[in-house]
Amino acid sequence: MHHHCLLVIGALLSLAVPLLVAMETCPATGMPGMPGIPGMPGKDGRDGEKGEKGRSGTPWDGGLGPQKGEKGEPGQMGWPGKRGQSGEQGISGLPGVPGNPGEPGDPGTVGIQPKAAFSVARGTNEYPDKSSVIRFTSVITNLNDDYSTETGRFRCRVPGTYYFVFHASLEDRLCVLMKLDDNLLTPFCDHRRNRRQVTSGSLAVYLSRGQEVWLETKDYRGMRGKPAGYSIFSGFLLHSH
User: What are residue 44's phi and psi, to 5 degrees?
Assistant: First the structure.
């Protein structure tokens, strides 16, 4: 009996030894264990090599708020605003420099209205020259000598509106031109012949100082001037300006 028990024990041991060897050589397949306690901190390492110098940053104005950025590009011009209220009137400035003297005015007399008038006659019975100024040589009235018997022209001294009229005796066709500084104002023509008669014409015109008015012939020049029937040219100032 005792011998039989030893055989059984020996058989069990022979089976158990290989199993134990296999457990030591094969990895465990069970649940992982709890994490271990952290180890002690290690010592500080040695300083590394010095790096390159970095670029300069934006200047710092101080303070704890946001820093001002770089200046941007100018924006587009905005629309004009509404006109504001007018300010208070400023102090009057100093008087300006006196201007240059003006041109001399027209001559005159205080309290007396300027006057201009003439009336002259043609004292010859000969026809005037063709296409020429008709000269009236006999003076009836000539204030300030504004009409020249040498040139046959009236020269304006007082600017204003004038009235001119002529009265002519004729025995042939006559065409009289009234001119202002070589500009034709109007023609007065009478084409009847072989009969003694009279003709006349008149015109109101504005004259500036220095302008001239006269009568002139064209192709027909049958104007007479004998004492029995003078041909007369007159003019006078209606209103000065």
Answer: -60, 140
| Contact call for residues 153 and 147 (beta carbons, < 8 A) | yes
CA–CA separation, 152 vs 169, rounded Å?
Answer: 18
pTM of the model: 0.53
Those residues with Cβ within 8 angstroms of residue 58's Cβ, 6 or more apart along the chain or in another chain: 67, 69, 70
pLDDT at position 184 over 90: yes
State the pLDDT at residue 134: 94
Contacts of 214 (CB under 8 A, 6+ apart): 133, 134, 151, 152, 153, 154, 178, 179
Rounded distance between C-alpha atoms, residue 194 and residue 213, angstroms: 31
Q: What φ, ψ does residue 231 adopt, rounded to 5°?
A: -100, 130
Cβ–Cβ < 8 Å for 61, 67: yes
- CA 182-183-185 angle, 5° bins: 130
DSSP-derived 3-state class of residue 195: coil
Quick check: 137 and 172 in contact, CB under 8 A?
A: no
Per-residue pLDDT tens digits for 126-149: 889 999 999 998 999 999 999 999
pLDDT of 26 reads 47
94-129 residue pLDDT tens:
888 888 888 887 765 555 778 999 999 988 888 899
- The token pair at 32 is 């992982």
Q: Given CA atoms 44, 47, 51, 56 in this order, what sign does their dihedral have? A: positive
